[in-house]
Predict the 3D structure of the following.
Amino acid sequence: MINSVPDPVMTITEMGALARSASAMLATLPTAARADGLRRAAQALRAAAPAIIAANAEDMAAATEAGLSPAMLDRLRLDEARVAAMAAGVAGVADLPDPVGQVIDRTSAPSGITLTRVRIPIGVIGIIYESRPNVTADAAALCVMSGNAVILRGGSEASRSNRAIHAAFVEGLAAAGLPADAAQLVESTDRALVGAMLTAAGLIDMIVPRGGKSLVARVQADARVPVLAHLDGINHVYVDASADPAMAVSIVINAKMRRTGVCGAMETLLIDRAYPEAADLIASLRATGCEVRGDQAIRAIDPSVPLASDADWDTEYLDAIASIAVVDGVDGAMAHIAAHGSHHTDAIVAGDAAVAERFLAGVDSAIVLWNASTQYADGGEFGLGAEIGIATGRLHARGPVALEGLTTYKWVGRGTGQVRG
């Protein structure tokens, strides 16, 4: 493991120059060539599975000794099934529609010039991420397929896994004749390299952070490069009075407990004051091993529930913990979400379509769902293949960011000799 480099700025400058050259080549390659590179990368990942799993075992041992939480260990862990899924995800990106060159719209200007907006790659993308080594392959695949070069900087806890995954991925690109510099990995754990990436304006065109609040906050505070980021996944499920009780239990348990460490996990359950089966809903969630904390109205239903603190409503637990509040109908739910949500993913369980539509229209989140688990907040489930992340801002891209979210556009004008007077 490389812990430091003599000159972080020079290191990123050199990587950025190589990435810029690779991105120029990728942008001119036909779809079939980029797709072939990803299919070969997927093959290389499958072949390297034993080496990847062995490297991950070393990371897991070190992370366990360092006291990482069970949720973080789950994010870090790789096994045969997860490596196979990673490879399948890379191959799946190769089969997605290519946005590069896609005509967004066409119009004729008053001058007679025909104007067309055409999708093009952004250029060089920097990905700064923690824990999940599969991001190494997912992000690289999406960037390459969308004609972008990528500089990857993973967390120190996954450094061995990331190196093994990256080596296999680049082997596949090279076998297809694609530039190996299209996907570069910052191998050093020196944090100064993150700062160098954040200030590499002109070399890196966009930064995407994937990790906890402290990472995202640092990136947003220090970056001199445009940032595409999401805040915490403080996601809510609101159970309306009109909800089917069996459906409500099923969705709430899945939203919280399927995988507690993912950004799409439910953190807060909101229950309509008029919902008749609140006690059963609380008991069912606790029966799965989930720790619950509630407001005074929840404690009135079940006095054994500990009182939630003010901080609970603004916490992304990423663990088997949920806060629960009673609200006055859909308006109360929307008010709570507006005050405490992170604009990520929020869901309503309701039989009343009018109430559901009010929720879907009124909640300002990147993803809103009706009668479905928040754990569907995933690019693969949206038919986008792998994803760079879930963007919760308002500009450029929102929700799962995949191929189209990694493109911008340019105007192409075709004239017949026009000159402006």
Notes: Residues 235-376 form a domain with the Aldehyde Dehydrogenase; Chain A, domain 2 fold (CATH 3.40.309.10). The first strand starts at residue 103 and ends at 108.
